[in-house]
Amino acid sequence: MENLKVSSSTGLSGILRIPGDKSISHRAIMFGSLASGKTAIRNFLQSEDCLSTMDSFKKMGIKIRRKGETVTVFGKGLYGLKVPKTILNANNSGTTTRLMLGILAAQAFTSKITGDKSLCKRPMRRVADPLREMGASITGRDGGNYTPLTITGGLLKGINFKSKVASAQVKSAVLLAGLYAKGKTCVTEPEKSRDHTERMLKYFGVKLEIKGNTVCVKSGQELRGRKIEVPGDISSAAFFIVAALITPNSKLVLKNVGINPTRTGIIDALKKMGAKIKIVNKRNMKFEPVADLVVETSKLKGTVIGGKIIPRLIDEIPVLAVAAALAKGKTVFKDAGELRVKESDRIKTLCTELNKFGVKTKEFKDGFVVYGSSKPRGAKSISYGDHRIAMSMAVLALVSEGRSEIKDTACVKTSFPEFFKLFRKIQ
Ligand code: S3P
User: Fold this and answer.
1) Beta pairing partners, 294
2) Terminus of the chain with fewer CB atoms < 10 Å: N or C?
3) What whole-number distance in Å separates Cα of residue 369 and Cα of residue 271?
4) Closest CA relative to residue 391, chosen from 420, 369, 371
């Protein structure tokens, strides 16, 4: 088991280049595989999750070449995938599984997809239900709610799907199936989730109709291979943003961070808490906006985080809870029931781990309260195999008295293999 020892810090400084965005890297491999011609992806995130996506397409006969940080996908068009000879393994990746289900649902073959212990507990019905309505067969434990799943695809028909959850994975799976389905496929979500699928599909030449929280696609459209540059992942930057805010005498410059408005809830929430974050050098990287962030030690105050903003910061709640632990007053996270079905039950794991550092919390059904202003004490923390819990607790350890140990940190490689190197570099 890999562990990380962290001592309390007197100040952080440096300039960091944040590695590629995970959501965009997954989609670049997927859409590149379904496109005709070559797709060259620069700054691809070489994390375990994205490599699971890459491996799945290789198993379906797609040639993918990796050279440094550039990955080239030799797409074979929408109908170019071959029946996989072995079971596809998404390992820890919910994005791989759910988006792949949308693609597999439309193939004229039967395939199986599975994952690790954590993935096999995450709900898939939210994707399986609309795909079945479109005509696919998806079977597995609990009526096809959990991996391993068997998918028999075929001729699909377009649907008008109203999702109960604001989920980019659900939206993307249905839209991908919609590329093959007869007629028009529409997805409406209660709040707008990240829109990387929509942006990238358009960049590959697909026409979409977007009105409010509804996205529609018509079949019969071809994807054309393109050159892609992946912006830095704001979800990875988040750990360093909070580290700089809460550690005394700190200033960090984070270069090349994606600032897609469907992902910047973390910046809005932290600014509301009093954070000094400057967004400079704004530019467009083809279809996604990027910028550099300058972050300095700040006095934070508690706030309420709930409603519309939740899908814009859902993955950053673990590290926002760490910011809340150092803020004056209490911070309430609400309307965040989705946290219970992430890589761990993050409401439970966060409250348990924060308590170990002497930070008081209160758990409720779809959220929790963090009581700030405390002087955290060093603790022995565990990750529950959840990368974002491991990295968040490492950040909290920087401002906790004495020495801390974070156990079982290998999971960090699923999203941010360079985390430890950068974490050491700024101290
Ligand atoms: C992702 C969507 C989000 C997010 C996940 C990545 C994506 O999940 O939590 O880490 O790449 O589409 P939802 O499907 O709940 O939006």
Assistant:
1) 253, 278
2) N
3) 19
4) 420
Question: pLDDT band at 241, cuts 50/70/90?
Answer: very high
Pocket test for ligand 1, best of 314, 344, 411 (most atoms within 8 A of CB): 314
Counting from 1 in the atom list of ligand 1, the atom nearest the Cα of 342 is: 9
Of all residues in the chain, the percent with pLDDT exceeding 70 is 100
Separation of alpha carbons 332 and 283, rounded Å: 34
The predicted-structure confidence for 179-200, as pLDDT tens digits, reads as follows 999 999 999 999 999 999 999 9
Residue range 135-151, pLDDT digits in tens: 999 999 999 999 999 99
**Selected catalytic residue, list 315, 345, 366, 408:** 315
**315 carries an active-site annotation:** yes
The structural domains of the chain, ordered by start, are 4-20+231-425 (3.65.10.10), 22-229 (3.65.10.10)
Burial of 115 (0-12, 13-18, 19+ CB in 10 A): buried
| pTM, two decimal places | 0.98
